[in-house]
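Hello forum,

I keep getting stuck at the same step: I have a sequence, I want structure tokens, and every attempt I make locally crashes halfway through. Rather than fight my setup again tonight, could one of you with a working pipeline run this one for me? It's a single chain of 583 residues.
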Amino acid sequence: MRARKGAGLLLIIALSVFCFPNFAGALLSDKKAGKWNLMGRIKSQASFRTTDTPDNNQVPIEKGDMTSQRNLLFLDFKHDLGEFNVPTGGLLPDAPLQIEYFLQLRAFYDGVYDYGPDVFSDEETREWYGLSNGDEIDDFKSDVGLFMGYVDLTWSDFFLRLGRQKLAWGEMGFISIVDICPQDNSSLDVDVLERYIPLDMVRANLAFQDVGPIASLSIEGFFVPGKIDNTTGERVPMGTPLIPPTYRNTPDNPDPIGTLVQFSDLIEDDIESDRYGVKVGSLVGDLELNFMYYRVYSTMLMPTLDLDRMNWDDIDMNQFIEDLLSDPDFDLEDLPAILEGILGDQKLPVIETYDDVETFATSFNYLINSIDMVVRGEAALFKDVPKLTGGSIPDLFDEILVRDPLLPPLDGITGEDIAGYLGSDLGEAALPFSLSADEIKKYDVWEWGIGLDKNISVDFINSKKEIMLMFEYMQSKIMDWEPETLLLPWNGPNGETLYENEYLTNFSLLARTDYLNGFLTPQILVFYEVEPKAWSFIPSLLLMKGAFMFEISGFFTTAATYDGLKGNLDCKDEIKFAISYSF
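Reply #2:
Ran it on my machine without issues. Output:
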């Protein structure tokens, strides 16, 4: 029902704007005084997979399958209320107080979950692959509501913004280091305008001019109360196109780890910690230099088993062990039935938690006039970042055995014994969750990067053509790293466990130009991840005609393994077609 309402709203507004664009633009505008106006953007796009997915993907997406049909609407309303005289009694300089407010409505609907391939839209097909999260998908595929809404107060050199807003302090363009707002990485088709998720915050800035050799000095701070807004990054539901390669679990061919995940109940644990930070910025000549401290939430959730939530009266561990040890011909296909026999009507409770991360960072932006090039950079130290340290099958059964009230008759049985009967496929595998909160390890992480922006002129058919180039290098290092300790939340093509590397190094290059007076804009964005030697290519072609924009783009990745950030995208090559209209 929610999806239908979202699609209906999009259709009504789209027809109004396309059929009566002048009327829609004039309906909410103040042309005479220019104090308020309504602007909007409608976009519809469809993405198709250009390669088959391998066997370790949750669902078999075939070449040519549609993976997204996302429809998006933005409505922006901005109102300048004017200037007001604020009496200060001579204690402060006389200056008018300017008040403005901004409202942004967002509505989106992804139709692939209603009329796309059966692996996305058909409930029975999804259940065949061990996916029974229809309610979660219904909430995920559409939404209508206020995306941003805030009030701006400007008084002399003091600025205050109250409300739901975005905040970006970094200088990097492609892979951000200094992030204040969480990102929505739930789909390759999330629009750039909605990639950063707004937060309910108070943001203030105080500027000073000509402070000694410093042309401009500013102090900026923000505060997000955790009890009002504890928003984290958008969660990716199981069985969506972007979910990392983990397993493919079917009744005829159950995957061991996939079966364990299927018999897990993922419970998101709310965090209510306040987020806040302060930035000191300066401008000396052509150099802009910033120093920052802030506290935000960790970007990766930590899944942890919480056996205290289980009803142990429903579990007969003795019967399970007797059945297992008495069957020398145990087959992994019997695992779902065995797990169901252990757990009864309940599932393994897995709590997904976030934690606070304190950050000390700096950034700079410098214009080299002699060669007309901008140099940008960021560096940050992230303190006590939680990392995924998975448990093992023996440890899991040891935890269950210790808690079972009927333990004494089988006192000699251990988790290692049970793992030995399960076989190497399962007994030696790392679990995709920690067995307790105490096992989650925290590490200090350094990240740094530098970017170069340059416009160059090249000869093109007896004329000069301007090409914009953007180059970036980013690297991170996990302090006190140990080999094969920190899990990546996905698996290799044969189900093997993958681990985080000590270093992560990325290079990126963007080249863009235009033809026909800006009507045609070709662009290529290339990423290279040093380990595991992964390349990503994102070519695009934009055609702009008045308020209309047409886009054709691709996303192609090739990698040596599934390791690293880009490696898990190796099976997600896509081509996208989009049309948008601004009014």
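Residues 481-583 form one domain. If your local run keeps crashing, start a new thread with the error log.
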